[in-house]
Q: What sequence folds into this?
């Protein structure tokens, strides 16, 4: 019995390529949403004068750079600085409008956008000041603030957006171990997954087939202590090992991911909310197991029929022996 463990990142957006000029588009979306919040908050009888937003000027400034086919870094930086100025003015105006209310008049959906816009401004202002493109818990969409950019280093998609999941496979059945919207180190989850295996089945697996990222010294030492064979590419220079992973040995786990993507759209999660997206991903894993279970139904039916036939045959043999014994006793009695 093989126990596979693997990691994979899933994209929930059709956008698989991310350029840092997209920060300009993000700021424009945030500015437009802040203008909508100002329109909602302003009341003629409560406020003296409606704050100026310069929305037409801001949109014109944005399009001047965004519509160019080739944008220099200097042009992008200049456009980002201007959009930061427009957004900062709108945020200050929103705060002034809110001071006239005793309670916040926004509904939960609008208040969420307000918090996201403020956080986005702080992140973009910090990156602009430090001339950097990295910040902790970076927001890449005001509509899906839980989505994080995950650097993959692939040829077609250097950066992907979506949940990162940790999946194990046992006898063709997949188990979703970890789902996170932030990047995490998969290597630290191997021992936890093995312990969950023991809690579920009552014993440790004999072998564990894993990606190279799981094969650190800490995991290797712990698995050796538990007398579990780690079948994976060894650390350091290639050596002649008896438990070296062979080509095609990891096909079951890779094929399971391919089935989830191609047949059930695991790489096309279109839900917006974080909980809905997580439920969508978990449901796909459940469907994979149901399909696997359905494939075993004919075998189970045949096995049950054969078992029933064997039981009936044994019962018939017992009845025949009893009948023969009864006839023999009657024959002796008559004689």
A:
């Amino acid at each position: 019995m093989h126990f596979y463990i693997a990691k994979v990142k899933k994209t929930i957006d059709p956008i698989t390529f991310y350029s840092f000029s997209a920060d300009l588009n993000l700021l424009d979306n945030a500015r437009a949403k802040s203008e909508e919040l100002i329109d909602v908050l302003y009341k003629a009888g409560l406020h003296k004068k409606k704050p100026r937003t310069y929305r037409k000027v801001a949109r014109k400034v944005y399009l001047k750079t965004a519509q160019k086919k080739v944008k220099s870094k200097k042009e992008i930086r200049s456009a980002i600085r201007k959009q930061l100025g427009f957004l900062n003015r709108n945020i200050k105006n929103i705060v002034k409008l809110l001071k006239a209310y005793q309670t916040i008049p926004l509904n939960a959906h609008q208040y969420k956008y307000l918090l996201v816009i403020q956080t986005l401004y702080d992140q973009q202002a910090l990156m602009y000041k430090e001339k950097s493109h990295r910040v902790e818990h970076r927001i890449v969409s005001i509509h899906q603030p839980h989505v994080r950019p995950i650097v993959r280093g692939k040829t077609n998609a250097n950066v992907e957006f979506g949940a990162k999941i940790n999946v194990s496979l046992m006898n063709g059945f997949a188990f979703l171990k970890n789902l996170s919207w932030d990047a995490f180190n998969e290597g630290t989850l191997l021992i936890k997954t093995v312990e969950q295996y023991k809690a579920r089945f009552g014993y440790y697996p004999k072998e564990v087939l894993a990606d190279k990222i799981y094969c650190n010294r800490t995991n290797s030492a712990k698995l050796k202590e538990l007398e579990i064979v780690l079948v994976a590419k060894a650390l350091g220079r290639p050596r002649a090992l008896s438990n070296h992973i062979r080509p095609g040995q990891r096909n079951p786990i890779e094929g399971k991911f391919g089935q989830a993507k191609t047949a059930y759209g695991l790489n096309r999660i279109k839900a917006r909310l974080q909980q809905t997206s997580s439920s969508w991903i978990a449901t796909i894993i459940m469907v994979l197991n149901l399909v696997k279970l359905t494939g075993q139904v004919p075998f189970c039916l045949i096995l049950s029929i054969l078992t029933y036939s064997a039981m009936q045959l044994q019962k018939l043999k017992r009845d025949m022996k009893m009948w023969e014994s009864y006839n023999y006793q009657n024959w002796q009695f008559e004689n």
